[in-house]
Amino acid sequence: MPSGRIVKDVVQRIMERTKVPNTYQVGEVCQILAKENPDLRGKGGCWAIVSAVNEFSCTVRIWNGELTVGLKHLKSYDYLPAECQQMQVIGDRISRVYSVSLEESVLKFLDSLGKLKRTYLTALEEKLLSVIELETTI
């Protein structure tokens, strides 16, 4: 029985031979699909904005950082360009206030915003994020 490392290496070699094109675009909004990838634990379902397109992966920004994700772990939301811009604004706002030293309840709220399935904040979410922005800049 081959080890996981050997199987992974063989799969990577096959992928390199088949050369499936990476069709993602910088600025595109995608969903992260964790699919048994331990490196993506807790990030499944998060929306992510593509910041770099690589041959077999994309570098993406999520609410609390940046990571490189294989193509099989991304699914495009197929948002319109204006919707991608809205998500960029929301992502920028969340990233500016994020800090590991924030209270647990605030981190949970930011995490929930990072998993939204829509391109806008509700009036209440907007107010709560504004309060957090005010409190973290003081």
Entry keywords:
138 residues, 41% helix, 5-stranded antiparallel beta sheet, 19% strand, 4 helices, alpha+beta, 5 strands
What does this entry look like structurally?
The structure is a single chain. Helix content is 41%, strand content 19%. The protein is α+β, with helices and mostly antiparallel strands. The longest helix has 17 residues, at 81-97. It is elongated, with a radius of gyration of 17 Å.
Cα radius of gyration in angstroms: 17 Å
End-to-end separation? 58 Å
Global geometry:
elongated
Low-confidence stretches: none
Classification by helices and strands? alpha+beta
Q: Let me know the largest β-sheet.
A: 5 strands, antiparallel
Helix content: 40-55%
Average pLDDT, all residues: 90
Q: Could you spell the SSE succession in H and E letters? A: HEEEEEHHH
Topology, number of strands: 5
Tell me the number of helical segments per DSSP (H or I, 4 or more residues long): 4
Strand order of the largest sheet: 4-3-2-1-5
Portion in strands = 15-25%
